[in-house]
Amino acid sequence: MFAFTRKTRVGTAAAALALAVTLVATGCSGGGSTGEGDGGNLSITFLPKNLGNPYFETSNQGGEEAIAEFGGTFEQVGPSEATPTSQVQYIQTAAQQGVGGLAISANDPSAICDALDEARSAGVKVVTFDSDTDAACRDLFINQATAEGIAKVQVDLVSEQIGGAGQVAILSAAANATNQNTWIELMKEDFAANHPNIELVDVVYGDDDDQTSFDRTAALLQTYPNLKGIVSPTTVGIAAAARYLSTSEYKGKVALTGLGTPNQLREYVQDGTITSFALWNPADLGYLAAYATKALIDGDIKGAEGDSFEAGKLGSFTVGADSTVLLGDPYVFDSSNIADFNF
Ligand code: RAM
Q1: Which of 106, 221, 269, 342 is the most buried (most CB within 10 A)?
Q2: pTM as predicted
Q3: Is residue 183 domain-shared with residue 169, that is, in the same domain?
Q4: Ligand 1 pocket, mutate which of 86, 154, 208 (most atoms under 8 A from CB)
Q5: What is the pLDDT of residue 29?
Q6: Which three-class secondary structure state does DSSP give residue 25?
Q7: How far apart, in whole angstroms, are the C-alpha atoms of residue 296 and residue 337?
Q8: Residue 296 and residue 236 share a domain
Q9: Per-residue pLDDT tens for 16-59?
Q10: What angle is formed at CA 104 by the lines to CA 85 and CA 312, rounded to 5 degrees?
Q11: Which residues line ligand 1 (CB under 6 A)?
Q12: Are residue 90 and residue 120 in the same domain, yes or no?
């Protein structure tokens, strides 16, 4: 069927905003935990944009950890490609199976809305995390950091790395991804308003596919011989671009930054391909999404602004405007701190 199991390693960093960051690596048993909570149907399915992306493996591990803590049942399913409708069949299957909740990172703001509406009509609580749908299609969105903050940190990093002037391009994920498209719009505004000497020459899409992202990087460098920097607001894209740059004549000449996982980029920080990049803790994001789903299932919250709930080791969270819960701030990784992280 669609379910898959994985597991041997869980690297969970309790990344506070402060410089003091605790890394906790824990072993974890395979296959998901089972059990019932206080009466609610705590069977929760995680549905990432696509499978095979270490970012979502880490967020799913966080979800599984939380669900084990509160005695629910964890499952993860997902498509191999991050296309707009590829998640529909998994939503339908989960609803047919009678899960209590779905935690989903959406490939498109509206393409999965009909399926989500049906699931919700059948009593499934729907929480988006990482990449939202239209707000009407879900009960809650767990946002990793504000879109403005995520956009600004990337613009600031590339500006700093290219000395505030020159051509830059964006290597994004799938063309319809809600999260990347929101950040890109805000980056465009920031470049225009605050960086008059930086020219954004192109936005290309690697579809959160490694090879496509690698090929798009090569094409960008050919098309724009004066390119000074690439911003890739996707962990798949930045890793593929780093791999390309690291063995090319552009290494150390064309800056690369964006959003990446420390484990995927460590070697490129060490070899000088990348100076610094940003992210949040995907495990915490999945963990928070799981607790939020539980709070909805148990009826502790409805998803209204001002609702608050407990999220285990992360503490208490309050629902903000547009039924959104905020995890924290983005965090910048560079050679001085990358060794402290394992995800
Ligand atoms: C990729 C995905 C995900 C995004 C990260 C930064 O893993 O596109 O949605 O949040 O990058």
Answers
A1: 106
A2: 0.90
A3: yes
A4: 208
A5: 30
A6: strand
A7: 37
A8: no
A9: 333 223 222 323 333 344 444 456 999 999 999 999 999 999 99
A10: 175
A11: 49, 53, 55, 105, 130-131, 173, 177, 179, 208, 234-236, 259
A12: yes
